[in-house]
Amino acid sequence: MSDVDSLAPLRAPSAQRPLLGMTVLAVEDSRYASEALRLMCLRSGARIRRADCLVSARRHLQVYRPSVVIIDLGLPDGSGVNLIADLDQARPRVGVILAISGDASAGVAALAAGADGFLPKPVESLGAFQQAVLRHLPPERCPVGPYGVSDEVVSPDPLAYRDDLEHVQSLMESGQSAAVLAYVAQFLSGVARAAGDRALAQAAEALTGHGSGAGIARVSGLIKARLAARMAI
User: Fold this and answer.
1) Residue 174 pLDDT > 50, yes or no?
2) CA–CA separation, 140 vs 161, rounded Å?
3) Where are the alpha helices (DSSP H) in 135-194?
4) Which of 81, 99, 173, 206 has the fewest Cβ atoms within 10 angstroms?
5) Domain 23-141, what architecture?
6) Helix 31-44, helix 158-174: angle, nearest 10
7) Domain boundaries, the chain
8) By its UniProt entry, which Pfam families does this protein fall under (predicted)?
9) Cβ neighbours of residue 155 closer than 8 Å, sequence gap 6 or more
C-alpha cells in the first residue's frame, strides 16, 4: 500500500508548502530529533510517520510505501546503513532516501550504500531540510516556478529532550554492558549536542570505548540533575 498514491490525486506542492502530498518515514530513535523532523514536515506540508528502530521500520515498509525515508545511522538494533542498502535495491524504490547522523564522517558509508543525501545532526534549518528532499525529486513533484528558501530555524519542544534523558536513564539502570554504554554514548552525545547541552554531550562522549565508573557516574548524575530541574519547574 502506498501512502502517496492510494485514494486521491496528489495536491500540487506550493512555494509555501513544497512537500505537500508527500509522506515521510523517519527512522529515528531520539524523540528530540523526531520532533524536529515532525515540525519541519508540518511546515513543509508533508505527513510524517516514525519508526524508532530497524525492526519497526521494516514492519512499516511491508505495509506502506512512503515518498521519503530519513534514516538515522545509529539505531538501537543496528546500523541504518543496512536499511539504506536494502531500500536502494528494492523495486519499486522509495523516491528519496536520506541518511542522518551526528557523526559527519558516517555520511560516506551512507552514500556508498545508496542514500541520495546526508543530513548532519542537528537538523535545525527548515530550508536545508526542504532542499535536501527537493533536489532528489522529479520536476513534477516540485513547486512550479521560483520559490524562496526558508531561513526558519526549528526548535523542538524541550519535553522531547526530557523523554530522551529518561530513556537513557532507564537503559543505564537496567544494565551497563559494553554494548549498552556504546549505544548510550553515541545516542546521548548526539541528542545533548542538538539540545545545546554541551556538558552532558562531553560527558557522554567520554563513555566511548571504556565507560569508566567515574564517567558513568558523571553521566548519571547530570541526567538526574536535569530531570530534577525540569520536575521542579
Assistant:
1) yes
2) 38
3) 158-174, 178-194
4) 173
5) 3-Layer(aba) Sandwich (3.40)
6) 150
7) 23-141, 158-232
8) Response_reg (PF00072)
9) 124
